[in-house]
Specification:
single chain; 274 residues; mainly alpha; MetI-like fold; two-stranded antiparallel ribbon; 13 helices
């Protein structure tokens, strides 16, 4: 009975996913073309393509990764290699993971006040990248921590017997053997950052007229906000078609990042078993 219930729940979840995918790609395929991917939008997005929206999304996500990855590596190594108390480790982990429970709109509000107002970045891609970097920090850290904690203890014992300090051990032994966790976590963090909307809607995104940013204080158009604007303009059929097209591009980007991260993890798992 329990197995049947689990099977039904799994099948229901898979069915919902397939319905979402078929709907998005089914409605978005008519808009997808080489011109849609390489041309700028016009008429407030109702015409043209999503070239600058793709560029803006990549700028924000790559910027967020550049901020979050070093922080995730540092906090993970500090937690696993330097903290000796299990209570301190648990408390440290709880603080980091609690970021996942915060509503994204609160990240946007707090981030705009801190980075946009007090640090003077304003509504810019830099503000958005800083906010997204903090948001994806737990995702990246979880992947790195899994790799570090799965490292055989013999490597640490060998390094300790040679008189290595905790930081030397982390830098010269742990990190080189666990870098695949950083790669996997970074890709998953990119996928999450690419799908965020509320946190960047009023902190980093330009809804129309923006192209390639000329400075750190310029906003950028993104696929997420582009979809939001077009979906609100249901009076024009071309707006909805372009909205579904942009949604297809965004969904494809996220799925490719997730699939690539799974491939990386499987490759290193196979190598570890040899």
């Amino acid at each position: 009975m329990l197995i049947a219930i689990i099977f039904m729940l799994a099948a229901t979840g898979l069915l919902v996913l397939l319905i979402i995918l078929s709907t998005v790609f089914g409605k978005g395929m008519p808009a997808l073309s080489l011109g849609f991917l390489t041309e700028p939008s016009s008429d407030f997005g109702a015409e043209g393509g999503v070239f600058y929206q793709i560029i803006g999304t990549l700028i924000l996500t790559v910027g967020a990764l550049a901020i979050a990855l070093p922080l995730a590596v540092g906090t993970t190594l500090f937690q696993t290699e330097c903290l000796r108390s299990h209570r301190l480790k648990a408390a440290f982990r709880a603080v980091i993971y609690s970021l996942n429970a915060m509503p994204t709109i609160l990240f946007g509000l707090a981030g705009y006040v801190l980075f946009g107002v007090y640090l003077g970045a304003g509504v810019s891609w830099l503000t958005g990248a800083l906010i997204l970097g903090i948001m994806i920090l737990p995702t990246i850290q979880a992947s790195i921590q899994e790799a570090v904690e799965g490292l055989p203890e013999k490597y640490r014992e060998t390094g300790t017997s040679l008189g290595m300090t905790p930081w030397a051990l982390a830098q010269n032994v742990v990190l080189p053997l666990c870098w695949h966790g950083a790669v996997t976590g970074g890709l998953l963090g990119l996928a999450r950052a690419a799908g965020e909307t509320a946190a960047i809607m009023f902190t980093a995104a330009a809804f129309s007229g923006a192209t390639f940013p000329q400075s750190f204080k310029d906003p950028v158009p993104t696929l997420q906000t582009h979809i939001l604007v077009l979906a609100q303009d249901a009076s024009q059929a071309s707006s909805l078609t372009n909205a579904w097209g942009a949604a297809s591009v965004l969904l494809l980007m996220v799925f490719l990042l997730i699939l690539f991260s799974l491939w990386v993890r499987n490759q290193f798992s196979m190598e570890a078993q040899r």
